[in-house]
Amino acid sequence: MDARGIAFGGLMLAAAGLAGGCQSSAPAPQDMARTNLGTAPADLQLMCASAAAGPSGVDSSKILPTSSSQLDATSYRVDLDAGGSRFTCVIDSSGSVKSVGPAAAAAGTAPAPAGAG
């Protein structure tokens, strides 16, 4: 075997070793990101952003959902950033906004019902 054959053989062994070292099994479902269904679906978060435009006085395209959580079997709480002001929205799984208001209200009292402002 000449030098090229030895070099090629060594290169193939190194490539096989790297390929074998890079393989890994997929993580278990509970270790994957976003497996918890306790967050509001994206479409409901965007509906809340639109609903917060009126009370916040901020264009809905500038309102961003920052977090969400499931309250019960059919409703979600969505926290929003409306141009630096924090708002909270409660929406059900059918897309009906139940309430929207400043986040400070969420700490002590319920946000204003949708359509009240």
Could you explain how this protein is built, in words?
This protein is an alpha+beta fold. The protein has a domain at 42-108. The chain is built from 4 helices and 4 strands, in the order αααββββα. It has helices spanning 3-22, 42-51, 53-56, 103-108, and strands spanning 63-70, 75-82, 85-92, 97-102. The protein has a 4-stranded antiparallel sheet with strand order 1-2-3-4. β2 (75-82) and β3 form a beta hairpin. The protein is extended and about 75 Å long. The model has no long low-confidence stretch (mean pLDDT 78).
Helix content: 25-40%
Reading the helices and strands in chain order gives: HHHEEEEH
The main sheet comes to: 4 strands, antiparallel
Please report the distance between the alpha carbons of the first and last residues.
Answer: 85 Å
How many β-strands, per DSSP?
Answer: 4
Q: Average pLDDT, to the nearest integer?
A: 78
Secondary structure class reads alpha+beta
Poorly predicted ranges: none
Residues in β-strands, percent: 25-35%
Q: What's the gyration radius in Å?
A: 26 Å
**Number of distinct helices:** 4
Kindly list the characteristics that best describe this protein.
four-stranded antiparallel β-sheet; alpha+beta; extended; 4 strands
Q: What does this entry show, briefly?
A:
This protein is an alpha+beta fold.
List the SSEs and their pairings:
Elements: H1 3-22, H2 42-51, H3 53-56, E1 63-70, E2 75-82, E3 85-92, E4 97-102, H4 103-108
Antiparallel strand pairs: 1-2, 2-3, 3-4
